Amino acid sequence: NARAVVFTNARCLADPATTERLLAHQCLREVQVPIYGTESIHESLTTRLGSYAQTLGGLSRLLKGKFDRTEMVLKYLLCRENLSCAKEAILCAFKHAGLPNRLVLSSLIMSCRAQANAKRIVFPLRDAQRAIADVLTLAASEGVAVILDRLPACVIGRDNHLLYERIAYYEPPV
Asked: Residue 2, class by beta-carbon neighbours within 10 Å (0-12 exposed, 13-18 middle, 19+ buried)?
């Protein structure tokens, strides 16, 4: 009983037929859609004009689809440019597309191509703590579980017990 996880920018899913074909697969466990910030930041990082609207359009179609056995996950990829607007960007995605089953906060992965842009990936710990605290509070108010992925536990902050109570821990299936 293998179950698949699809990681997609969702741009092609603005087409209803494509979305229906994707959701029709019995083995589909989860669809993860990343956003990189507000429209200008998202498009700066993807280098594709119009990608923000297309991604939110595809995510919206996914969230409005019939997916009894498939979880929809919004993945916010943190980097230096989008820390300060994380709450705003996620709130905009929630309002435009709807509420996902889970929200994943993850650090932007440094691929071989991106190593030249390492300054984007390394961000100040205090800024990350504030951004994550704001996002966790927002997600809790909407009833959306949050997963921290590829982020050190210290970004939660030592003194913020409320945050520890709001984090969902995800164990991949064996």
From this structure: exposed
- Residue whose token pair is 């050190």: 152
- For the record, the structure tokens of 97 come out as 């597309």
Q: Among 82, 84, 72, 79, which residue's Cα sits nearest to residue 150?
A: 79
91, 1, 2: which is closest to 38 by C-alpha? 91
Distance CA 88, CA 66 (A): 28
Nearest to 131 by CA among 161, 155, 100, 147: 155
132/163 Cα distance (integer angstroms):
9
Give the whole-angstrom CA distance, residue 118 versus residue 17. Answer: 39
Taking only the tens of pLDDT, the chain with its 174 residues reads 667 888 888 888 877 888 788 777 777 888 899 999 999 999 988 889 999 999 999 888 888 876 667 888 999 988 888 999 999 999 999 998 889 988 999 886 655 455 555 566 667 777 888 888 899 889 989 999 888 887 777 776 655 554 545 444 444 444
pTM above 0.70, yes or no: yes
Residue 78 CB-half CA count within 13 A: 27
E runs forming strands in 66-158: 71-78, 102-107, 145-149
